[in-house]
Amino acid sequence: xxxxxxxxxxxxxxxxxVAVSSLDLEIKKGxxxxxxxxxxxxxxxxxxMIAGFIEPDEGEILIDGKPMRNVSVRRRSVGIVFQNYxxxxxxxxxxxxxxxxxxxxxxESEIKNKVNELLELIGLSDRAKALPKELSGGxxxxxxxxxxxxxxxxxxxxDEPLSALDAKVRNxxxxxxxxxxxxxxxxxxxxxxxxxxxxxxxxxxAIMNGGKLEQVGSPxxxxxxxxxxxVADFVGDNNFxxxxxxxxxxxxxxxxxxxxxSQEVGRKEACLVVRPERFRVVKGRSEINEITGKVxxxxxxxxxxxxxxxxxxxANDLLVDLxxxxxxxxxxxxxxxxxxxxxxxFLLFER
Length: 351
Ligand code: ATP
Hints:
- InterPro entries: AAA+_ATPase (IPR003593), ABC_SmlMolc_Importer (IPR050093), ABC_transporter-like_ATP-bd (IPR003439), ABC_transporter-like_CS (IPR017871), Mo/tungstate-bd_C_term_dom (IPR008995), P-loop_NTPase (IPR027417), Transp-assoc_OB_typ2 (IPR013611).
- Keywords: ATP-binding, Nucleotide-binding, Transport.
- It comes from Acetomicrobium mobile (strain ATCC BAA-54 / DSM 13181 / JCM 12221 / NGA).
- GO terms for molecular function: ATP binding; ATP hydrolysis activity; transmembrane transporter activity.
- This is ABC-type spermidine/putrescine transport system, ATPase component.
- By secondary structure, the protein is of the alpha+beta class.
- It folds into two domains: 3-233, P-loop containing nucleotide triphosphate hydrolases (Rossmann fold, 3-Layer(aba) Sandwich), CATH 3.40.50; 237-349, CATH 2.40.50.140.
- The chain has helices spanning 43-51, 73-76, 93-103, 108-121, 137-150, 167-184, 195-201, 219-224, 229-234, 324-327, and strands at residues 5-14, 17-27, 32-36, 58-63, 66-67, 78-81, 155-159, 188-192, 204-209, 212-217, 239-245, 250-253, 256-259, 268-274, 280-281, 290-300, 304-310, 318-323, 335-339, 345-348.
- Strands 6-7-8-3-9-10 form a six-stranded mixed β-sheet, with helices on both faces.
- A hairpin with a 2-residue loop joins strand 1 and strand 2 (17-27).
- The model has no long low-confidence stretch (mean pLDDT 93).
- Bound molecules: adenosine-5'-triphosphate (ATP).
- Adenosine-5'-triphosphate binds at residues 14, 17, 19, 37, 39-45, 193.
């Protein structure tokens, strides 16, 4: 098995700005971990510290159990792919991939075998002689990935590698990166601000906010059990209903009483979170956790439609996603009653 990476109490300041604050994080053996968060939250700084471009002010970074302080970028044996390809423009695909191996004085026959193997892995065997400018953006990024893998890195660091590509290529390459990572088993840190991307390809997702870690967990955990409002908000759209938890499994929002699942005791202010796709239309027989309102907006999303529903006394419209076939019955101005299961909602007790 290949190495793992550990960050222990890592802090990085730029003058007075704390870019990364007491970060504890582990990339386990063979794991694909995404670092997700808004612009400026410290993702790239974290990656650059693991790579060795910058040193932490406090704390320690270990690769395979070994402390990395004062170990040069090259001696850390990390493979890095940036957003903007960064291929050598005057070298063809083969030579770009071979570059790191040449620098390490690896025998020519070994280089040839390895590069050909990698060209096959990325599906570009027939483009070995192409210069970067003769390749599409997606192909260039594949070459960059192969170049990073060529040195048999202990860890792969990918910094928004797909963000310069158009949506279709991005989607295809996401799965390719995942496949290649799984085959190679190299622990990978994937920096992105795209929540969909992070949730779709990662074994675990670490969410950062203001230099700190908010939550680390499996994509499903992060999506269904966010621990903070920031996480809930950052990974997908939500309805935040501010009200009072009554301490007995019920929650009151604008005079409406809902049944919720919570082990909390005591009455307190809380926020009930319901994802738009968790609502269903109430037809006929009444159900628990109903909300009635008037459709104020409708957008077609393909398989789904999103309705904005004006609810009496609420300052915000309720967002409800329905299958297009269900949504077809409701136009702007129509009255609608929706409901949600207690299991499909969760309470946050912070403000
Ligand atoms: P983005 O998604 O926009 O790349 P990020 O989450 O990767 O953002 P970082 O690039 O790590 O964020 O930056 C974290 C904070 O540190 C930002 O406020 C940034 O302005 C600051 N910062 C980063 N590098 C430096 C530097 N070399 N000198 C001064 N400030 C820096």
